[in-house]
Amino acid sequence: MSHASTRPREPLLDALRQTGRVGDAALAELHALLVRGAHHELRRRSETLAQLSHGEIDDLAHQAAGDAMAAILAKLETFRGESRFTTWAYKFVLLEAGVKARRRAWQAREVTLEDESWRHIADTAPSAQQTVEDSDLLRAIVEAIESTLTPHQREVFSALALNGVPIDVLAERRNTTRGALYKTLHDARRKLRAKLADAGYDLHDHGHTGARR
Q1: Over the chain (213 residues), what is each successive 10-residue block's mean pLDDT?
Q2: Which of 187, 131, 190, 189 lies closest to 162 in space, CA to CA?
Q3: pLDDT score recorded for residue 117
Q4: In a 10 Å sphere around its CB, with 0-12 CB exposed, 13-18 middle and 19+ buried, how is residue 94 labelled?
Q5: Taking the domains of the chain in order of start, what are their residue ranges?
């Protein structure tokens, strides 16, 4: 028996593929589901949105639901039934709500692309708590950032890896894409690892620095 024949029926998905009254009712049902999902995700991030009113939170939830709905309908034919349709759809709104929450939280915060905080990495921890090896590694990282990375890579690395700017916020401010920034960050980290490895440092024992999603 084929997988398709054993797959549970998906009434909402079937209705979304219809027109007229049935299709309109399905769209309303999907939108309501997405609004609930957006509110759930925004409540999970309530600490970063504490300054917003209930009305502003509701507006964010509806924006996220609207964007998620557009994405779902555009990709409806790509749904393969590997999970329930509502579970698949829910992921879209969780992503959209997360993006909107991060952007809203950073709305009044300046992202300084010329930031040179990487120059101060070696000063970030109390020297009394650092081993000589750690201090040497931090200084080597600063030198590697300065000598190995391009100005663009330094800006992106500093914003994402050191200053905690969410990647979608930086993408919006720089009028670029998350993918382009991920590639820049990946290339920068690869260069740094290679430079530090040449200098005799094993970063596998020290963890790594990444971007906030």
Answers
A1: 58 88 92 93 86 88 92 90 89 90 73 55 48 66 86 85 78 84 89 85 54 49
A2: 189
A3: 54
A4: middle
A5: 3-105, 117-205
Instruction: Write down the pTM of the prediction.
Output: 0.56
Architecture per CATH, 3-105: Orthogonal Bundle (1.10)
Report domain 117-205's class: mainly alpha
Q: Return the pLDDT at 94.
A: 92
Tokens in use for 170?
A: 């930086």
Reference 173, options 115, 111, 120; nearest CA is: 111
Q: Is the alpha carbon torsion for 135, 137, 139, 142 positive or negative?
A: negative
What sign results for the dihedral spanned by CA atoms 31, 33, 34, 38? Answer: positive
Query: How far is it, in rounded angstroms, from Cα 144 to Cα 134?
Result: 15
The one-letter amino acid at 137: L
Let me know: does 123 contact 181? Beta carbons within 8 Å.
Answer: no
Provide the sign of the torsion angle of the four alpha carbons 174, 178, 184, 189, taken in this order.
positive
pLDDT of residue 35: 94
